[in-house]
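Good morning,

Attaching, inline, the backbone tokens for the sequence recovery test we're adding to the shared suite. The designed sequence is right after.
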């Protein structure tokens, strides 16, 4: 008889988290978490909060990089998963057309609207982008694919080839021939590439995840028009921006766009079972599945599994019934307004930008002489140490989880769950206010930690050399 007991296993081994990862998983990541003060062992999670063994709450403002849009352990999704397990449903028969994947495909197609009536399910965002690239090449019979500088589309080879970043690409060359980026928001640079006539698609994040950047003009409308003019597809990577993150169901609604392919993931999972998808037209879809003997020429073993589909259906129900796009828009505006109000008080703040609940606070060299000197000492050691200092202080002093927005960019990024209210907004804004007030005192505990960060950065640089 099998006596496996999950609860007993977790209880008996709780607290070994970082030792186990040091031995068997990513030792370097574990070291980084210890260095920046994030080496916590969480016992429970609910909504916008994580809890440690002592019951202390941690306000989660990165939401698993955007996965927990509807909050952690949402009861609607939890019940749906339990119901599916209790029903002993047939799963991944493979040589069948399962009901649940058909239902979720129908729901996503109806939500995307217009001509988007064909789907393919994947396990992740990068896999959705890989599939979109393949379908674009098949449909256009062209090989080149373009992205925008600063964009992030995933870390598998096709996606990584379009994530043109020294940080992510170092050590992994060569990349897919014909995959390259153009200067973001530069229509002339884009047209110069499109007019060559060999571009299958342009893939864009309408709000770039690394840095939370977006154009403030009609760039995307014109870029889409240029793609149509030169016969390239317009792929909208909504892996992070999609499903209410920006205050609308899809970010393309802000610009009135009509993409050829839309990729989604993250929030669609409800935080339980990984799931992604790309949504396109029947014409583009059929260009891949073009004959009976090619009906599975592109496939994914786990892509249409029942639990993933259940999570997607339940999540879509929560997003719509609880009007979470509206709440994301409302709370996002409140956050940006209140953070902007801190600019007069703190010269460290350069800019607050965002759309819905996808927000960045970018920092700059402060005005005070002593603060300037301290800032420069951090910069000399490593680019974003001031921001890391802020992120760590938010965690240590206020139990708020945030992140550095991008490598080489002095900005904090937040991706709060859509369910937050004014209580969470005020907790975050007040915490930022207090951290930046403490940053003005260069003899205080915040800068003592900054000195430790400088030491760690210099030691890391020595080992890299």
């Amino acid at each position: 008889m099998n006596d496996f007991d999950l609860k007993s296993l977790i209880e008996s081994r709780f607290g070994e988290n970082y030792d186990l990862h040091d031995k068997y998983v990513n030792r370097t990541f574990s070291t980084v978490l210890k260095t920046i003060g994030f080496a916590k062992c969480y016992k429970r999670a609910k909504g916008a909060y994580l809890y440690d063994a002592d019951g202390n709450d941690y306000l989660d403002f990165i939401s698993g990089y955007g996965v927990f849009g509807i909050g952690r352990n949402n009861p609607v999704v939890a019940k749906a998963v339990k119901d599916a397990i209790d029903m002993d449903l047939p799963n991944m028969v493979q040589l069948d057309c399962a009901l649940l994947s058909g239902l979720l495909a129908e729901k996503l197609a109806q939500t995307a609207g217009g001509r988007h009536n064909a789907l393919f399910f994947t396990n992740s965002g990068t896999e959705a982008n890989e599939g979109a690239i393949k379908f674009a090449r098949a449909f256009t019979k062209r090989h080149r694919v373009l992205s925008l500088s600063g964009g992030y589309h995933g870390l598998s080879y096709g996606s990584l080839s379009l994530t043109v970043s020294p940080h992510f690409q170092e050590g992994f060359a060569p990349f897919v021939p014909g995959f390259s980026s153009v200067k973001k928001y530069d229509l002339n640079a884009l047209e110069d590439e499109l007019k060559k006539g060999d571009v299958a698609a342009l893939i864009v994040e309408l709000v770039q995840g690394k840095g939370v950047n977006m154009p403030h003009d009609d760039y995307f409308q014109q870029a889409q028009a240029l793609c149509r003019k030169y016969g390239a597809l317009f792929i909208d990577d909504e892996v992070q921006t999609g499903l209410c993150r920006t205050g609308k169901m899809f970010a393309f609604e802000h610009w009135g766009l009509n993409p050829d392919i839309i990729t989604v993931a993250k929030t669609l999972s409800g935080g339980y079972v990984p799931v992604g998808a790309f949504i396109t037209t029947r014409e583009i879809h059929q260009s891949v599945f073009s004959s009976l003997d090619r009906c599975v020429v592109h496939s994914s073993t786990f892509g249409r599994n029942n639990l993933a589909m259940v999570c997607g259906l339940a999540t879509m129900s929560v997003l719509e019934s609880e009007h979470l796009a509206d709440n994301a828009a409302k709370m996002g505006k409140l956050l940006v307004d209140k953070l902007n109000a801190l600019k007069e008080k703190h010269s460290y703040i350069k800019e607050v930008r965002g759309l819905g609940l996808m927000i960045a606070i970018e920092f700059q060299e402060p005005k005070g002489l002593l603060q300037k000197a301290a800032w420069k000492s951090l910069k000399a050691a490593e680019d974003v140490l001031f921001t890391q200092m802020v992120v760590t202080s938010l965690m240590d002093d206020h139990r708020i989880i945030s992140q550095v927005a991008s490598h080489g960019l002095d900005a904090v990024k937040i991706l709060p769950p859509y369910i937050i209210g004014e209580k969470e907004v005020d907790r975050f804004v007040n915490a930022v206010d207090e951290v930046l007030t403490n940053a003005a005192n260069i003899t205080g505990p915040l800068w003592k930690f900054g000195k430790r960060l400088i030491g760690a950065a210099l030691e890391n640089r020595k080992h890299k050399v």
